[in-house]
Prior knowledge:
The structure is a single chain. The protein is mostly helical. Helix 1 runs antiparallel to helix 4. It is elongated. The chain has four helices and no strands. It is 76% helix and 0% strand. The chain has a domain at 1-19 and 48-76. The N and C termini lie close together (12 Å).
Amino acid sequence: MKLALMIVQLICALFLIVVIMLQSGKNSGLGGSFGQSQTGFGAQAKSKTWDAKFARMTKWVALAFVVLTLVLFLLK
């Protein structure tokens, strides 16, 4: 069981690295270089972009990684 959890944790860690690397930075694009924020339609459209999906996936995968780490620590 411990080996299976370690394999799942490894997959989780690799997936987390990939998802983080695929996200764009906060200051990406021309608007970020001038300090403009997204308002109005930009804020609504952001919820459907890939960046928003990657951010959501990052939160859940990071939570799973932390839980797996704690479980593996308790099984030691």
